[in-house]
Design a protein that fits this description.
Elements lengths: L6 E5 L2 E9 L5 E11 L2 E6 L24 H4 L4 H21 L16 H17 L9 E8 L4 E8 L2 E6 L31 H24 L18
Helix pairs in contact: 3-4
Length: about 240
């Protein structure tokens, strides 16, 4: 813990400390936090029921535990970076209380829920290149259909652009790499294949399309996993609201 943050050690795996952050109006806010060590991870929540016990749209998990980001990214932070990330998270919580929405374009990224976050990361990894591929495609034009493959004993994904099948692959890669790349549908470039296209157009489109599809599917599964729950009514939009 940073030297200028006083803390009380409850036991070998739990500490309690106060963290100060500043609101948009310049005033300071202090929140008392409880941190638990769980394996290689740190779990954090506010004491005294300061925040809702559960609010997915505020990225507060069951039991009041904070969702501070993608686990694999959080684990790479130094303790100083972790504390700064926590301050940004508390600032986002204040904005949620003030406006009823998670702050867009802020210093702390909003991740998809559940497994959707890992698919979001892959979409973002390829999305910049997807926008620059000059194919004239947008995400809204793409549609993914999940197909069970008997021979390969895995799921295949058919990607359609404007209702025309353009790519087939599994979750990790485009198949049929000898086929013409989607940037050369008429074979005008002497049959530029998927495997030999230096811009990897087919791979980029495929990875964006299927991971966006899997993200939406994971989000739906996440919300359905809760069953009937009561909304905390601190956010303008919530899937728990009837």
């Amino acid at each position: 813990m940073k030297r200028n943050i006083a803390f009380h050690q409850v036991n070998a795996k739990i500490i309690i400390f106060e963290l100060k952050f500043y609101k948009d109006n310049g005033s300071a806010e202090k929140v008392e936090l409880e941190v638990h060590q769980s394996g290689d991870s740190l779990l954090v929540k506010a004491t005294n029921n300061r925040y809702p016990d559960l609010c997915p749209n505020r990225h507060i998990n069951d039991g009041g535990w904070f969702c501070l980001g993608l686990g694999e990214d959080i684990s790479q932070l130094t303790i100083s970076q972790w504390v700064m990330n926590l301050k940004l998270y508390l600032d986002a919580q204040q904005k949620c209380e003030d406006k009823g929405v998670w702050p867009c374009g802020g210093e702390i990224k909003e991740w998809a829920h559940g497994d959707g976050a890992k698919y979001q990361k892959i979409v973002e990894q390829y999305y910049g290149q997807f926008q620059k591929n000059c194919l004239g495609l947008t995400l809204n034009q793409l549609r993914v259909v999940e197909v069970n493959s008997v021979k390969r004993d895995l799921k295949l994904y058919h990607v359609y652009a404007n209702d025309e099948l353009i790519l087939v692959g599994d979750q990790n890669q485009v198949l049929n790499k000898r086929y013409a790349c989607i940037c050369d549908p008429q074979g005008l470039k002497k049959h530029l294949s998927i495997g030999k296209c230096s811009a990897q157009c087919s791979k980029v489109v495929f990875m964006v399309a299927i991971n966006h599809y899997l993200l939406l599917k994971a989000e739906q599964k996440f919300w359905q996993s809760f069953g009937a729950r009561t909304c905390c009514n601190t956010m303008k939009k919530c899937n728990f609201k009837k």
